[in-house]
Amino acid sequence: MDEYAENIFQVGEQPIHYVEAGKRGRQVALLIHGWSSSWYATSPLLGPLAQRFHCIAIDLPGYGQSPPFAERTTIPKYVDLLADLIEKISDGPVVLVGHSMGGMISLSLALQYPVLVERMVLLNPTITGRLSKAINFYISPITMMERFGIGGYIVSSVEQTFMGLTDRLMRPVSFANRTSIMESDYEKLRKDARRRGQGRVRAECYWAMRDNDLSGQLAEIETPTLVIWGAEDNTVPLRDAGVVADEWPQADLRIIPNAGHWPHFETPEITRRHVAAYLGLPLASDELYKPVGEDELAQINEIAQFFVHSDVGQGLSLPERTRLAAQCEVRVFEPGEVIARASEVSDELFIIQKGFVEVWKEPEEDGKRNGRDPHNLIHVVNLRAGQITGELAMWDKGERSADLRAGREGAVLLVLTRRRLRALVDDDPELGSHFLWNMSTAMSRRIRFIQWQLNRVQEQPRMTRVERMPAHSSTVMVPTV
């Protein structure tokens, strides 16, 4: 596990232990763990989220290193406390990431204080507050015994004597049969679940969730939300996912196979892909944890805004445009500078961000080319900002069919390689398919325009001819006299 900075927030009379990752000054992502956990329960997402957010992963009062409330624990108390915390640490709406009971707290906060929450990512969130039959039958009696001093002593003694009674009971209700959780992570989660001195808050939270049934209220939530659920969750049953599907169709609900109550530990790659796609985390999986500097992030955001009016950005959401922008390399060309030459083998697609690009083609006589004399090249067309070129070379990694030069004022190009696009498609199939659709639509429009030009020439055989022009000139149509 990476080392993160740890500290204490003081919110009124309540200390809150937290760890942080990512650069301060960026939008805050507040990570909220669930029942019988600590900040560590959200740790697999800290690395990727820190690419573009200032991440704060807290220990809820009564868990981890945060002392409990002086009074009885309830979900509304958690919500009010976190609202005060957000006001203290953020100058704008935050992104909430909640697991299990932390998901219920996140939903309740979005209902009570919608102005504080921009987006949410919820992992197996508790909706009705009624946990699985296995939890109610095996675990809740132990939790109730822990509520009182003598009961807690008995539970601890039994656990030590029988080499971890609660461990044996919790593993099948927490994880999938074919779970891929690492043993070191499992041991850490187990220790959090059985941390001494937390019996009272565990018992209070068990009833607090039941008293905070959210069914019937989800339709009121307008905050964009991704909901991820392990298909074999035997802690918060899938019937709660059914409530989400029935009452909250606006939520993006994803069910992950071979995962139980901890998909971010059991199936970390696919969980990170869903989260990265939804929140627009910049980088693809091959460089998932590469730090993003302030200048680079500002450039990514600028490109994401530019994509709104480009060939490839039509209909993409801001997170999708942000992910796409992060895959592009920026190249700057001087006026008249050669960008690419015909017959070069390439796998790069160019998206023109500023200026324009001239397309020059070698003339042919009797089916043969006249050589590489630059004065013999014919200016074919100018491509403006927002348009693409080189898409065919990207597809088949074949030879380019024309020369590309920067226009008279130079050009700034966004370069997307075949490798980066394929990595993006693997990480985010929905974004990849949308991008490919936009690219094919742009190609179709260009082909239709060329066909229209050819039809015009055929209809007016005495119309014009294309004059050979020196470099940097525009195409001129000269009427025959």
Provide the spatial order of strands within the biggest beta sheet: 1-2-4-3-5-6-7-8
Residue runs with pLDDT of under 50 for 5 or more positions: 154-165, 463-481
What is the CATH architecture descriptor of the largest domain?
A: 3-Layer(aba) Sandwich
Gross geometry: elongated
Rg, rounded, reads: 29 Å
Tell me how many strands there are: 18
Instruction: Please estimate the helix content.
Output: 25-40%
CATH homologous superfamily name of the largest domain? Alpha/Beta hydrolase fold, catalytic domain
Structural class: alpha/beta
The largest sheet, given as strand count, sense and whether it forms a barrel, is: 8 strands, mixed
Tally of contiguous helical segments: 16
How many separate domains make up the residues?
A: 2
Can you give a write-up of this model?
The structure is a single chain. By secondary structure, this protein is of the alpha/beta class. It contains 16 helices and 18 strands. It has two domains: about 250 residues, Rossmann fold, CATH 3.40.50; about 170 residues, Jelly Rolls. The strands form four sheets. An eight-stranded mixed sheet has the order 1-2-4-3-5-6-7-8, with helices on both faces. Strands 9, 10, 11, 14, 15 and 16 form a six-stranded antiparallel sheet that branches. Strands 12-13 form a two-stranded antiparallel ribbon. A hairpin with a 2-residue loop joins strand 1 and strand 2. Helix 2 packs across helix 3 and helix 15 packs across helix 16. The chain is elongated, with a radius of gyration of 29 Å.
